[in-house]
UniProtKB/TrEMBL annotation:
SUPFAM superfamilies: L,D-transpeptidase catalytic domain-like. Transmembrane segments: none annotated. Pathway: Cell wall biogenesis; peptidoglycan biosynthesis. It holds the Pfam family YkuD. It comes from Sorangium cellulosum (Polyangium cellulosum). This is L,D-TPase catalytic domain-containing protein. The active site is at H366, C382. Residues 272-411 form the L,D-TPase catalytic domain.
Amino acid sequence: ARVYSKSREVMIRAAPRPKSQWIGQLTIGSSVRLKSAEPLRGAGDCPAFYAVEPRGYVCVDGERATLDAADPMLQTLAAHAPLADQPLPYRYGESLGLKRLFKVEGIETPEWPSGMHDKRHMQVRPRSSVAWTREVEAGGATWLWASDLTFVPKDKVKPYEAATFQGVHLTSEVRLPIAFFRRKPRPKYRLTEENQLEKTDAVWERLDRVGLTGKSRQVGKRTYLETRDDGHWVLDRDAVVVKPRKSRNPWGRPIQLGGGAPEAVAEGPRSTWIEIAALEGWLIAYEGDRPVFATLISAGRNGAEDPERTEEAEPFVPPSTTPLGQYSINRKWVTKTLITPHVDADDWIEAEVPWSQHFFSKYLLHAAYWHNNWGDGQSGGCVNLSPVDAKWLFHWTEPAVPEGWYAVQVTRKDPSTRLVIHR
């Protein structure tokens, strides 16, 4: 038996009480297995709670959540469910300035369960984003059925081009250091018989990568790095060189550069951690003392700074700046809408941002579907990843998201992936 979500946000609680701490979420199209078919007495507006796997409790009221797999509304909602097995769970586009509508004449619209629409943001300012699942025709126009089940006019949305870049999984053959190439193609150099380095006609394309041997050569004022690509060399300033900044991991063990499988561990924490070079624009994921994955990221467009302690509840970080320091993943969402409030204008909306992982204040690791500019700072301070990389990292980090859950929040018992962010 399972409990099925009929809402965009159904909370999994730590205890069978309406105001108990949330530890997870369900959404449209998701369900979770019951731990027990025996209902627990509810409170307030909740008639009954049910224990779910692997932990927690869900309020089953028939309106937002149900035990009935044949509920007609579930079948209707299934067409609007996010594709949680894809790097991009929705289709996405840039708003050109638009107004959401609850109904459109000529489109049969069900009476949705309460709380489905984002009524606070019916006006979507230009350059905000929209997420949708379906296109429908009515009255000679095409409408997009948005993730909150409102309608937006297709001609007011500019679809984003899919970002296809992805990082590299490290093995005994593919190991650090690695060079990535950002912004534009970069020339390959060859060593001549006179021990000079000359430019060839061949290039590494933008966002290509190549292994490095670790050897370098000084020619005049220029430094060249030897690659593992058929004797080619690269000018050091043309490359984003990814290699550990320190010799030891956060637990004091020497870092191994050889790649390959990490040491086997008993069930429990895998000692996962992530090193992020905010200004250089790269990320390395580690299991214990071994790097297992490397990629380019996009951090804050105004750089990176240490958070300043203030009298306010949270430390201050300058706008569009990535916070330096050590943090831990504490919440994860398959998608999360990010909202930047504005006093004198409509809020800035980034709709249904995939693979969002919170680590500090308002800052997250997440996919960016609105740009393909990896290795350079372009974010509002969060750490942007390509959709493919963000999805892999989301499922790799701790805590794990249980089967059927759409989001998870760390409890004291949960392991949590550590982040080390430096310039």
